[in-house]
Sequence to fold (196 residues):
Amino acid sequence: MRARLAIAISQRPVQLREVRLADKPDEMIALSDHPTVPLLVDRGSVVEESLRVMHWALSQNDPENWLISADDPLIAQNDGPFKHDLDRYKYASRYDGINPIAHRDGGLRHLHALEERLGKAAYLGGAKRSFVDIALFPFVRQFRIPDKDWFDALPLPHLHQWLSTLTGSALFLGVMEKYPVWKDTGEAFIFPPPAI
Fold:
């Protein structure tokens, strides 16, 4: 999601091939020792992982100056400890002997840090959305899914407003379109579509 958001804002068109992770196409497997999504091929070079794809897209064109917050320490916290807790909270059945509520509590500590930052400005990077916001909010959105009532009742008003603003944006709604799986149809799409 965050790679698509950066590609969309950069308006750097790519050919999108939707994949089913449980049934990866041989062409994708041949490109990488650890093929996962997103995986981008640019003139024979393979760009793996969503943060790298974000950097790639914004290095082509960064109309909103997102890269100014690309080194924010919150990104490492998000992709490290918070994602660790998120995975074990949301997908507890995939892990043996874990306590999902303990991991929910661990994730909540990260949310409190975001709330503190958002109490000073509308976005994590300041007055406007930027790289750090786009890098983090898809994970916060995922953290909400297992128990929306619990999440929505949290006394984190700035975080709730931030998440609502980003998930309600035309940019986010535009990249959420579902595409047919390339392995099933052979169909690739130009992304972003002109409407975004």
Remarks:
- The mean pLDDT is 95.
- The longest helix spans residues 100-118.
- Strands lie at 14-16, 39-42, 45-48, 189-191.
- The chain is about 50% helix and 5% strand.
